Amino acid sequence: MFNSSNDRPELPLEIVELIIESVDNDQKTLRAASLVCAIWRTAAFPYLLHDILISEEADYERIKKLNSS
Q: SUPFAM superfamilies, per this entry (predicted)?
């Protein structure tokens, strides 16, 4: 598959998810993977927020904003 905007190959979501699942315990790698593109960020996001403590409303709003970007 090619991304029409820049003619670079784009991996199918299923492949990206398999890659992310293979590094699900490595927070540093997950953070780096989430910076690749929106699809990779979407796949990595649940693993990055696996264990999170939300103690204030402002924290919740920041997380909500991250998820929608």
A: F-box domain (SSF81383)
